[in-house]
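Hi Q.,

Before the meeting this afternoon, I wanted you to have the flavin-adenine dinucleotide prediction in hand. No need to reply - just skim if you have a minute. The sequence and ligand are here:
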Amino acid sequence: MELRTTENQRMIADMIRDFGAKHIKPKMMEWDESQEFPIEVFKELGKLGLMGVLVPTEYGGSGFGYLEYVTAIAELSKIDGSIGLSMAAHNSLCTGHILQFGNEEQKGKYLPKLATAEWIGAWGLTEPNTGSDAGNMRTVAVQDGDHWVINGAKNFITHGKSGNVAVVIVRTGEVGDSHGMTTFVVERGTPGFSAGRKEDKLGMRASETTEMIFEDCRVHQSQMLGNVGEGFIQAMKVLDGGRISIAALSLGIAQGAFDAALAYSQERNQFNKPISSFQGISFKLADMATEIEAASLLTYQAADMKNRGLNVTKESAMAKYYASEVAVRAATEGVQIFGGYGFTKDYPAEKYYRDAKLCTIGEGTSEIQKLVIARAILK
Ligand SMILES: Cc1cc2nc3c(=O)[nH]c(=O)nc-3n(C[C@H](O)[C@H](O)[C@H](O)COP(=O)(O)OP(=O)(O)OC[C@H]3O[C@@H](n4cnc5c(N)ncnc54)[C@H](O)[C@@H]3O)c2cc1C
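Predicted structure with the ligand bound:
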């Protein structure tokens, strides 16, 4: 496994730090408060090549691999997890699904627009009654000549309203049959496709999360990704890569929480000493630093394996599971180190604390990651 930071990774990290200081930090608490999804920031990130990190240059992307992708998401999430989450959903889920399973015509049509953020992408698997148990979904597509008619609802969808295009996995066969689901690309403006309720969330508040509703929504056969019955299997493969991006998101939040707590612990005096001089505080920092390092190794290991074309089902689940739990622990200890100030919006600790929790839930909860890992090691 390659552990050296590449020149590209360094360049991406510097670029994001610079961009974040100018365009994200000054406004992020406003967006958080009002739950505004800053589309213009996305367009700017697109111009920097961050909305098509893994898309080959021939389709207008940056043509990077997973190491650069992890660095980009982690660096962005150190600043604002909401922007990191949206970037991950756009790149790994919507764009990633079309990149992996689209035909040449579909890739030529959608990837250049998505890679430059001219269009924002959404990806719909989850439904109100089926989250972890996604295979039991009820949204259906029924064939009618050379069209398919979709009825049902998806919920918790990142960019479910602002997305110009959505990749949706729907039922085309029997409930309970893993080959009974199919993927379609549905463009915003298609009659019968609308956004529903926007969620009012604990954290990740600048990342838009809404329902997507389908009422007799007719899509042409040419909008199908792959073949009938492949949807669920495709989704699981997309999530293998997606989980690396949530591990990166977790890593960024954990590092951001740690950096803030480390600096504060050296500035804040109690009993005429910096609080970092108390063993009770320095041991917290030692635990945080060690766990972040371990999470980083797992995440870059999964990224390196993915670059080499290896199966990463187990490794991406391990990285996602461990890094997300580390993010929650680091953010919790971060608040503790800030004391009462950590409980206020004057310092960044409370936002890391709220944002971190999504990481143990989105793209498969920690319990589901353990199921995936257990299945892999028990076979
Ligand atoms: C901010 C946000 C953004 C999201 N973005 C998207 C998106 O863009 N696209 C999309 O499709 N989805 C998205 N999701 C949905 C997300 O992937 C689901 O919320 C997640 O998979 C969990 O599903 P659920 O919420 O229905 O919880 P449930 O599946 O109802 O789980 C509830 C609890 O039961 C546990 N549980 C369930 N089954 C088992 C089991 N077999 N063994 C042990 N424990 C179990 C879970 O771990 C959890 O603790 C998003 C969610 C959020 C909050």
